[in-house]
């Protein structure tokens, strides 16, 4: 499908940046057919890419050439790069030239701007990759782990088509890169707009940079995307006061919005004639599994919506009590975008499809009479404290209602809560109130006050950077 899009929209601008540089669809197509890029076909290419025009251009050319990109962030440490190289033995690397200058065994094949394609000593050591493998993408929760999700061309482009359908993306849309391409949500924005002939504004600036907002307005950006953390920042920056003349869509995924923030975005979008989409997905399903239509926001704000076109949900019964009259169970998704499985090392990339189009999400959900789904917790987010079953998600929700962002972790008979606050707080008083709120004994509870909860560039909580649990 990528080749069809590159050919169909050949004269359209695909990528452009603040400096006025542009790349057309046909430019990617022509680059993919050069000897340097076509030589990567059915080889593993470690892509150390951030949101830069040259970096994304090369990634898309590799995809079109039939290579298998393995995505890691542009800010990845040298130690981490060496670990990935040792575990997965990629034949090529696409990265900023300066990042690999210290590797004498790598040879530069071709340079495009500040990025270069390097060959590694692993060429000829391994078998060519299977034809159905198209991409390796890290899982959201795999920081510090070599686990990757194996995605096929069918996974990627069927999901991109579904997203483009429900978001009604066409060649006149102009999204902006607010999420890293090593993150499934960020990459899905690029894929879904590419197959629609749209033009993608490329920037590595943050919401705190004035030039970011200047770029949005000057380049007539129509679509803004982010995870809850991004929208928390936008609320603090008073999004409602900014002049965004051309903005037509706001999309959100990567976690549940709290009620106040969801209402803020709903009111902002309603007032300005913007379509606001709440979405749900996992890397294991390529990107998206469901969306909440803007027309249903006011009525079903806390819902993840309905399955994307071509997908379906059902609930797997659980051995636990539930409240209310809705059916409750583990959410199961079926669709062509369900990944082939995981890889933890090079040999795993040769595995067959292990999921067969079915994904056990690990989320507990219920569905209402109109077919709208609601996430109520995680299977792995339950502990027992002195015989009392506690949902860590419920703990976080309780503190959210008290006005605190928090993270709850634990094991049986031990609960740790991290509360985010920039103000001085009486820790003993917080712990006393927490014990009362959760009905747990003080010996089972540990509370930490943090000025900020550590997060990745995509807004995901970096659990390993939290203070050690008691």
Characteristics:
single chain, 470 residues, alpha/beta, 5-stranded mixed beta sheet, 12 helices, 25 strands
Description:
The longest helix is centred in the middle third of the chain and has 14 residues, at 153-166. The protein folds into two domains: 2-311 and 335-356, 3-Layer(aba) Sandwich (Rossmann fold); 382-465, ANL, C-terminal domain (GMP Synthetase, Chain A, domain 3, 2-Layer Sandwich). It is an alpha/beta fold and 470 residues long. Helix 1 (2-8) packs across helix 2 and helix 6 crosses helix 7 (184-194). It contains twelve helices and 25 strands. Residues 320-325 have low confidence and may be disordered. The chain has an eight-stranded mixed sheet. Strands 11-12-13-14-15 form a five-stranded mixed sheet.
Radius of gyration: 23 Å
Fill in the CATH topology of the largest domain: Rossmann fold
Main pleated sheet: 8 strands, mixed
**Biggest sheet: strand arrangement:** 6-7-5-3-4-8-9-18
Q: Give the distance, in angstroms, between the N- and C-terminal Cα atoms.
A: 51 Å
CATH class of the largest domain: Alpha Beta
Question: How would you summarize what this structure contains?
Answer:
The chain is of the alpha/beta class and 470 residues long.
Write the layout of secondary structure elements.
Layout: H1 2-8, E1 13-17, E2 22-24, H2 25-32, H3 35-38, E3 44-49, H4 53-65, E4 68-73, H5 78-88, E5 92-96, E6 107-112, E7 115-119, E8 135-138, E9 148-151, H6 153-166, H7 184-194, E10 200-202, H8 210-218, E11 223-226, H9 228-236, E12 249-252, H10 259-271, E13 275-281, E14 288-292, E15 306-307, E16 312-317, E17 328-334, E18 341-343, E19 358-367, E20 373-378, E21 382-385, E22 388-391, H11 392-401, E23 405-411, E24 414-420, H12 427-438, E25 445-450
Parallel strand pairs: 1-10, 3-4, 3-5, 4-8, 11-12, 12-13, 24-25
Antiparallel strand pairs: 1-2, 5-7, 6-7, 8-9, 9-18, 13-14, 14-15, 16-17, 17-19, 19-20, 21-22, 23-24
């Amino acid at each position: 499908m990528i080749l069809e899009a590159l050919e169909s929209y050949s004269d359209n601008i695909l990528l452009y940046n603040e400096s006025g540089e542009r790349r057309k669809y046909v430019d990617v197509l022509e680059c993919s057919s050069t000897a340097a890029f076509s030589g990567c076909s059915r080889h593993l290419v470690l892509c150390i890419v951030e949101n830069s025009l040259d970096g994304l251009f090369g990634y898309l050319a590799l995809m079109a050439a039939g290579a298998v990109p393995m995505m890691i962030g542009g800010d990845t440490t040298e130690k981490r790069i060496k670990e990935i190289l040792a575990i997965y033995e990629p034949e090529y690397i696409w990265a900023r030239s300066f990042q690999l200058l210290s590797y004498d065994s790598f040879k530069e094949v071709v340079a495009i701007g500040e990025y270069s394609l390097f060959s590694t000593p692993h060429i000829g050591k391994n078998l060519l990759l299977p034809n159905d493998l198209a991409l390796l993408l890290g899982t959201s929760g795999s920081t510090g782990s070599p686990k990757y999700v194996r995605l096929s061309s069918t996974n990627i482009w069927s999901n991109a088509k579904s997203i483009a359908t429900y978001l009604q993306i066409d060649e006149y849309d102009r999204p902006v890169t607010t999420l890293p391409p090593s993150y499934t949500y960020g990459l899905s924005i690029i894929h879904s707009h590419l197959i629609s002939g749209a033009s993608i504004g490329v920037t590595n600036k943050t919401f705190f940079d004035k030039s970011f907002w200047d770029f949005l307005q000057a380049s007539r950006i129509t679509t803004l995307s982010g995870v809850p953390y991004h929208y928390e920042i936008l609320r603090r920056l008073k999004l409602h006061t900014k002049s965004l003349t051309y903005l037509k869509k706001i999309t959100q995924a990567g976690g549940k919005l709290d009620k106040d923030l969801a209402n803020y975005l709903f009111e902002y979008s309603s007032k300005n004639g913007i379509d606001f989409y709440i979405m749900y997905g996992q890397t294991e399903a390529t990107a998206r599994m469901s969306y909440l239509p803007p027309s249903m926001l006011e009525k079903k704000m806390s819902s993840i919506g309905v399955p994307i076109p071509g997908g379906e949900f059902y609930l797997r019964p659980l051995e636990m009590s539930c409240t209310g009259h809705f059916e409750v169970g583990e959410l199961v998704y079926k669709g062509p975008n369900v990944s082939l499985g995981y890889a933890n090392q090079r040999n795993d990339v040769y595995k067959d499809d292990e999921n067969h189009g079915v994904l056990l999400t690990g989320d507990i959900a219920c569905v209402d009479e109109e077919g709208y789904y609601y996430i109520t917790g995680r299977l792995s987010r339950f502990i027992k404290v002195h015989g009392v079953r506690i949902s860590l998600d419920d703990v976080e929700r309780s503190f959210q209602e008290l006005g605190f962002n928090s993270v709850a972790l634990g094991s049986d008979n031990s609960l740790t809560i991290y509360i985010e606050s920039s103000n001085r707080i009486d820790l003993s008083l917080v712990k006393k109130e927490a014990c009362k709120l959760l009905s747990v004994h003080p010996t089972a509870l540990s509370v930490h006050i943090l000025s900020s909860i550590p997060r990745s560039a995509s807004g995901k909580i970096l659990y390993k950077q939290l203070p050690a649990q008691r």
